[in-house]
Amino acid sequence: MAQMQASTVEQITKLKTKAASREVDAQRKYDELQLQLKAEVVMREAETRRKYDKFQLQFQNMMKMFQ
User: Fold this and answer.
1) d(CA 55, CA 59)
2) Which domain of life does this protein belong to (predicted)?
3) How far apart are the first and last CA of the chain?
4) Cα distances (angstroms) measured from residue 64 to each of 21, 52, 53, 57, 61
5) Residue 66: HSE in the Cβ half-sphere, 13 Å Cα cutoff
6) Backbone angles phi, psi at 66, to 5 degrees
7) What pLDDT sits at residue 55?
8) What integer pLDDT is reported at residue 11 of this predicted model?
9) Which H/E stretch holds residue 1?
10) Distance (Å, rounded) from C-alpha 57 to C-alpha 67?
11) Rounded Cα distance, 2 and 24, in Å
12) What pLDDT, on the 0 to 100 scale, is given for residue 67?
């Protein structure tokens, strides 16, 4: 009886350890994806800003031509 209880406790402990390990892995992957997404957003914002500045300059040059 005591051996069965010890075996059951050992199995539960192993399952809890595996679950905790999976949770840590999932959190790490989530954090990595969050960082990737943030980096992509920064890159897109920079590209959008560059295009906006380019068109703004073109517009200003066109306005000078009509003055």
Assistant:
1) 6
2) Eukaryota
3) 98
4) 65, 18, 17, 11, 5
5) 6
6) -90, 0
7) 98
8) 94
9) none
10) 16
11) 33
12) 83
Q: pLDDT value at position 28?
A: 99
Give the span between the Cα atoms of 67 and 60, in whole angstroms. Answer: 11
**Sign of the torsion angle spanned by Cα atoms 35, 38, 40, 42:** negative
Residue 29, Cβ density class (10 Å: 0-12 exposed, 13-18 middle, ≥19 buried): exposed
Residue type, 32: E
Predicted model pTM: 0.66
What is the predicted pLDDT for the residue at 17? 98
Alpha helices in the chain (DSSP H): 2-65
**Single-letter amino acid code for the residue at 48:** T
Cα–Cα distance measured from residue 52 to residue 58, given in angstroms and rounded to the nearest whole number? 10
Place of tokens 């980096």: 39
